Amino acid sequence: MGKSRRTVQIVILCLILVLGGYAITTSVSGSNGKPKEGDQAPSFELLGLDGQVHTSDEYQGKAMVINFWGTWCEPCVKEMPALQAQADKWKDKGVQFVGINVGEDQMTVDNFVRQVGVTFPIMLDRDKNSVRDYGISPMPTTFFVSETGKISTIHIGQLDLDTLDAQISQLAKQP
């Protein structure tokens, strides 16, 4: 009885060591599936506030600013006017803005968008598939994606008008 119990304990300890080693290795090596600058931006297929399903393929050949946000996130709400101002400024220059709302219902998001005056496309990530694919943790998080679909810059946290303008100017110069 004692010998059998000891064997089980050793097997469990070995499993813990192997899994722990794997977790540390993947964390250190950065192969946790989270996209990085220079990677191809993950694709998405999401319901828009317009009632249509939209995919990232619709925006091929355009530079993109993809912003993950929520109405409950104070920095997200504060940066929305700056995003709208930049969307207006860059819309005729080949830069597409897309807001991806994280997990909220359509009525809440629609009311917020109308109240703030957002006109760029807003998508609903109800199941948080895009959040997982993009590795979003804190919000807001904004991805600047080149015309070729590669991630140029990832900005975590609230953007102000000047930072946003500088990032988009840089993005617009990239092939």
From TrEMBL:
Annotated Thioredoxin domain residues: 35-173
Localization (cell): Cell envelope
Main subcellular location: other
InterPro entries: Redoxin (IPR013740), Thioredoxin-like_sf (IPR036249), Thioredoxin_CS (IPR017937), Thioredoxin_domain (IPR013766), Thioredoxin_ResA/DsbE_sf (IPR050553)
Assigned keywords, A-Z: Cytochrome c-type biogenesis, Disulfide bond, Isomerase, Redox-active center, Signal-anchor, Transmembrane
A cellular component annotation (GO) from this entry: cell envelope
CDD domains xref list: TlpA_like_family
GO molecular function: isomerase activity; oxidoreductase activity
Protein name: Thiol-disulfide isomerase or thioredoxin
